[in-house]
Amino acid sequence: MTKTQKAIYVIKKLLEIYPEPKCTLDYDKPYELLIATILAAQSTDERVNKITPKLFKKYPTLEHFANANLEELERDIKPVGFYKNKAKSIKETAKILIEKYNGVLPDSIEALTKLKGVGRKTANVIMANIFGVPSIIVDTHCMRLSNRIGFVKSKDPDKIEFELREIVPFDMYTIFSNLMVYHGRATCKARKPKCSECIINNVCDFYKRLSNDIILNV
């Protein structure tokens, strides 16, 4: 089985238990997803979703974020961590979007990654969910599962993204990325993964090594 064949198999199997995988950040407007994704860095979507309803109500437009009192904005987003840097990024990005793009998100990775606090992961989230472009989104779950399953051997998100692009069929990029998040949260956890319950353990390198270790230690 090639890595591409394995990827297709993994996607099909995981779709049996997660039939409609999608972005798990809550938002109504395109720029809200951008802000939510900036907030989600080194945090969790669940934690971000707890504060964004109140945040987006308090700052209902990009202009409100651009003109926000920095210290007040820091307090508003403090629960997600790294709030000082994130507040600066959100405020500066809002200004750039207003001044350079008339409040509309740019539709390319190159332009998005020039915004403050926006790396390739965040840019790919926007390309996938706002512009409908199939995108490989390398978050902590995608990184962990891609290494465990055996698609890559790297801790570099950008390297993983480009390697997965060569493995996963283009039209499955976004579905694959979302499935990695769903399965990472439910089964293939960072600590105490539920390997024996995993629907794809038959093609997982990590499970094979684990099984071999158990046999050797018997």
From TrEMBL:
Gene Ontology terms for molecular function: 4 iron, 4 sulfur cluster binding; class I DNA-(apurinic or apyrimidinic site) endonuclease activity; DNA binding; DNA N-glycosylase activity; metal ion binding
E.C. no: 4.2.99.18
InterPro entries (UniProt xref): DNA_glycosylase, Endonuclease3_FeS-loop_motif, Endouclease-III_FeS-bd_BS, HhH-GPD_domain, HhH_base_excis_C, HhH_motif, Nth
Keywords: 4Fe-4S, DNA damage, DNA repair, DNA-binding, Endonuclease, Glycosidase, Hydrolase, Iron, Iron-sulfur, Lyase, Metal-binding, Nuclease
Chain residues that bind [4Fe-4S] cluster: C188, C195, C198, C204
GO biological process, one term: base-excision repair, AP site formation
Matches recorded under SMART domains: ENDO3c (SM00478), FES (SM00525)
Cofactor(s) the record lists: [4Fe-4S] cluster
Presence of the UniProt keyword Hydrolase in the record: yes
Catalytic activity: 2'-deoxyribonucleotide-(2'-deoxyribose 5'-phosphate)-2'-deoxyribonucleotide-DNA = a 3'-end 2'-deoxyribonucleotide-(2,3-dehydro-2,3-deoxyribose 5'-phosphate)-DNA + a 5'-end 5'-phospho-2'-deoxyribonucleoside-DNA + H(+)
Cofactor note: Binds 1 [4Fe-4S] cluster.
Coiled-coil parts of chain: none
Domain HhH-GPD: 39-186
PROSITE patterns: ENDONUCLEASE_III_1
Pfam family for this entry, one: HhH-GPD
Superkingdom: Bacteria
Family affiliation: Belongs to the Nth/MutY family.
NCBIfam families found in the cross-reference section: nth (TIGR01083)
Role according to the record: DNA repair enzyme that has both DNA N-glycosylase activity and AP-lyase activity. The DNA N-glycosylase activity releases various damaged pyrimidines from DNA by cleaving the N-glycosidic bond, leaving an AP (apurinic/apyrimidinic) site. The AP-lyase activity cleaves the phosphodiester bond 3' to the AP site by a beta-elimination, leaving a 3'-terminal unsaturated sugar and a product with a terminal 5'-phosphate.
UniProt protein name: Endonuclease III
Source organism per UniProt: Caldicellulosiruptor changbaiensis
